[in-house]
Structure formats: structure tokens, C-alpha cells
Amino acid sequence: MEKAIDITEFDYPLPDERIARFPLEDRAASKLLLFRDGTIGESVFRNVADYLPAGAMVVFNNTKVIRARLLFHKATGARIEIFCLEPHEPADYERAFAVTGSCQWHCIVGNSKKWKEGPLQIEYDGGVLSAERLPAGDVIRFAWSSEHTFGQLLELLGRTPIPPYLCRESEEIDTVRYQTVYSRWEGSVAAPTAGLHFTPEIIASLPERGFETAEVTLHVGAGTFLPVKEKDARNHHMHTEFFQVELDTLERLAAAADAGRIVAVGTTSVRTLESLAVLGERVLLGGDAEPECTIGQWEAYRNGATAENAPSPLTALAAWMRAQGMTRLHSATEIMITPGYRWRTLRGLITNFHQPQSTLLLLVSALIGDRWREVYKYALEHGFRFLSYGDSSLLMPESDMRATGK
Fold first, then answer.
1. CB neighbour list of residue 39: distance below 8 Å, 6 or more residues apart
2. DSSP letters along 264-300, please?
3. Cα distance from N-terminal residue to C-terminal residue, the chain
4. Residue 302's CB: how many other CB atoms inside 10 A?
5. What ranges make up the beta strands (E) of 316-367?
6. Could you give the CA distance from residue 310 to residue 97 in angstroms, rounded to a whole number?
7. Do residues 61 and 218 make contact, with C-beta atoms less than 8 angstroms apart?
8. Would you place residue 153 in the very low, low, confident or very high pLDDT band (cuts 50, 70, 90)?
């Protein structure tokens, strides 16, 4: 990135009362802002399929939010919160949730000044969960004697990690509503909130109306809530998130991307799709995908043009996977999508309304340009609810951004 990105240019007034503190009872009753053909309008989310382009492939992030907040109390009464971010040992998410006896996680410790030394404990029916600080910075070692897996202990003892800007403790309603109806793979500490509006009925209706659906997995990290504190957003350090995709899904995504038919549900699906394309470009540029090598924050901007008759990046990546005998790809990404980004896969986006001066708002601007100001102005003037539990939008750029390279 050569041109500075002044984050103050991505600001707007967000009154506190416009932040949705709780979800609507009916997921599909949320308002839906429409940005299509250069015009702005609105509908209700249950009608979203009426406004999708013909033959669109709708891509969902099927990650599942874990009950990542564990509350310990010392004998003095001091409350220590341990927020599990990502597994350290075992490092693989599936094994980390299935392990018994002990494991290690990267964590954030709340009220850490009160935890000077010694283990913390939580008693539960069947055993005791202990937490011990290790010398390796943010790593916590958990140990327990019962036959529970660590995933089961989180379900039993943990709390849902709702966004900090909701300024409240999690409640029972969050256990269900801060989770998409299609969540499958445990690992997120924040929900892919654009998907919270979908109901099983809406999803079931998509194939009936001629739309395809596909699922990818990106485990959303707490870094998604980090504000951009640097005036030049290029100096913001993007967080790492882990993702995976099945080979047969990737092949379907490649065909849809080549035809300009992909509509992503949420920015996490976008980050996954564009990260897959970057891996494909590694192949096209003469190397291999190296999925174990994290996709850098600015790698997508450095990749040069490929041969004119070369396959698309997703097609190249799928062919590479087949040659390697892989049926599922795991990788990690720090990709940051800002104005001027060259899109590889996307035709449209379903997303909520994001915080001022955030990386998510930068992504929206990369998709629809300065028109984001008009979109957010309309939302503020027409009673839309903002942020994670807020209303939704369908953003369709006036031209095929993937084809034009804008």
C-alpha cells in the first residue's frame, strides 16, 4: 500500500441509542437496506431473496461461537475472567475441543493484577477445573480430572462472549441468538453477525428459487473489535484468523466467482474468499499454496498480474489441492481490505452496519466506494439499528468489481 489511509475520513456520528443492545425476537424481522443499481432503498430481511442477482451463490461462514469466558473467584472474592482466544496445545481447533485432562490456550486475563501466583479453580458437578499461568506470555494451562472434553467444559462453565460495545453482561438469550442457525465448527469468540438474520426457512428457500449456497469456515477472533487507533490505517496491525474450506466447496466457489455470482454473508466470509484467492495466486505465480504460511496483511496488494490465459486463482488452488491429495485446506489470514483493493471473488455483500473508523467500514468502502456515506446516512435517518444485533444491508456495487479490478 503506497497511499496513506486517513482513518478520520471513515467516521460518522453514531448515537448510543442507535446501537442494538439486544436482538429482535424474530431474526428475519430486521430491516434490510438495499444498495442496488446505484440507488438506496429498504425492505425487511425475510425478503432478502427477492433482491439477490439471478443465479447467485450465497456464501455463509459456518463457524460456531464458543462460550469462551471463564469466571474464576479467588478466596479473597476477587473475580478473574479468563477469555479463551485460540488453542495453543493442541493447536488444532478440533483436537483442542476434544481433548481431555489438560490443554493450553492463548487467553486474555481480566483483572490480572489480582492474580499474582498459584492456580485458580472452578468447582463443578464431577470435578474441578484449574487454570495456571505459563511463562509464555498469554498462555494458560487448564487441567481437570473428569472425563469431560474441554469443549464440554466450556459449554458447562463458560459464558457467551458478546461484543464489548454492548456494555452489558451476557444473558441467556445470547446463548441462542448470538449464534447463526447454520453454525457447525466451534472456534469463534465473536459471531459472524451478518448471518444472525437468517432463519432455516430463508436458507431452505434459496435453492428453491434458483440460488446456490456454500459454506466456508473462518473462526472470528476478538481482534475484530479492535479499533483503528493509528491516523494512517496502514499502520494498524491486523489480527490473525484461522479458516478452512472443503475441496468440493472450493471447486463450486471457483465456478461461481468466475461467473461473478458470489454474494457473501458477512465480512468474515469475504475475508475467507479473498484469502483463498491469494493462496491461488501463490500457485499461479509459480509457487505452491503453502497453507501453513499465514496470508500477510498486505500480500494481496503485492501480487502481480498472472498470465492472460491462466486459470482463476480459486481454480488454480483447487487444482493444487487435488495434486496434493487434499480434501480440506486449513490456513490463516491477516488480510486487510481497504479502498483501492483489487477484488478477486466478490459480486455483492450482505452485512450489518459497522463501527466508525473500523477495519470493517474500510472493507465496505472498498466495495462501494464513497457511497458508503450515503448508505450510512440513510440508515441513520430511517431508524436502522446498528452493530452486531442491528439491522442488515445488501450491498451490490454498480459494476462487477471483480471484473473491473476496482
1. none
2. EESHHHHHHHHHHHHHHHHHHTTS---TTSPBPTTHH
3. 15
4. 10
5. 328-333, 348-352
6. 41
7. yes
8. very high
pLDDT at 305: 62
Dihedral of alpha carbons 393, 394, 397, 401, sign? positive
CA distance 182 to 38: 31
pLDDT tier for residue 378 given thresholds of 50, 70 and 90 = very high
- The model's confidence at residue 406, banded by pLDDT at 50, 70 and 90, is very low
Predicted TM-score (pTM) of this structure: 0.94
- Cβ neighbours of residue 388 under 8 Å, at least 6 residues apart? 20, 162, 163, 166, 178, 191, 193, 196, 352
What are the cell numbers at 13? 456520528
What does the buried/exposed string (b/e) look like for 211-249 if buried means 16 or more CB atoms within 10 Å of the residue's CB? bbbbbbbbbbbbbbbeebeeeebeebebbebbbbbbbeb
For the residues of 46-95, what is the DSSP string, one character each?
Answer: GGGGGGSPTTPEEEEE-EEE---EEEEE-TT--EEEEEEEEEEES-SHHH
Q: What is the pLDDT of residue 307?
A: 63
Q: Which three cell numbers stand for residue 389?
A: 444485533
C-alpha cell at 109: 486475563
CA dihedral sign of residues 315, 1, 351, 293: positive
